[in-house]
Design a protein that fits this description.
Helices cover about 60% and strands about 5% of the residues. By secondary structure, the protein is mainly alpha-helical. It has one domain. It has a two-stranded antiparallel sheet with strand order 1-2. It holds the Pfam family RDD.
Length: about 160
């Protein structure tokens, strides 16, 4: 699970970086700098890119409990406690904020999972969330059963 979480984080960073660059490109081509014939593609403000990445993680985990990277690798974020309730807007905000703050000094927030017996990261412990495998029901199973029932009713031998 630890390596999957790290891979998910880097995958989501890449996706959010691409989305920001695409948005930045559209913004620059729509509003070129005065006195320049070609738009400046040198990059946006690091502050706005960090803000975009923060909002990316916060909103997607709040709405769906997953980011696109988490969906691809089959994990989701829920509240830590009995049951599997999705984390709320404020808990997800604190988790995302702590993810950024605790990982700034050499990734200590994620390295904490190596010392934790449960494998939880520092920001998951502090925000009272946990990451689980996303167990989706096999959607093909009911279809297989209905086909089998249909064939067993129509295929009667004399």
């Amino acid at each position: 699970m630890r390596s999957v979480r790290l891979l998910t984080f880097f995958l989501d960073l890449s996706i959010s970086h691409f989305c920001f660059r695409f948005w930045h490109y559209l913004w620059i081509t729509s509003f070129p700098s005065p006195g320049r014939s070609l738009p400046d593609f040198s990059g946006g403000s690091p502050f706005f890119e960090c803000l975009f990445i923060f909002v990316y993680f916060w909103i997607l985990v709040t709405l769906w409990g997953q980011t696109p990277g988490m969906v691809l690798l089959g994990i989701r974020v829920i509240e830590d406690g009995p049951g599997s309730r999705p984390s709320g807007i404020f808990r997800t905000f604190s988790r995302t904020f702590l993810l950024f703050v605790t990982n700034l000094p050499m990734g200590i927030g994620s390295l904490f999972s190596l010392l934790s017996p449960s494998g939880k990261t520092l920001y998951d412990c502090m925000s009272q969330t946990r990451v689980i495998w996303d167990e989706k029901p096999d959607l093909a199973e009911p279809a297989r059963e209905s086909v089998m029932v249909h064939f067993s009713k129509t295929n009667t031998s004399p």
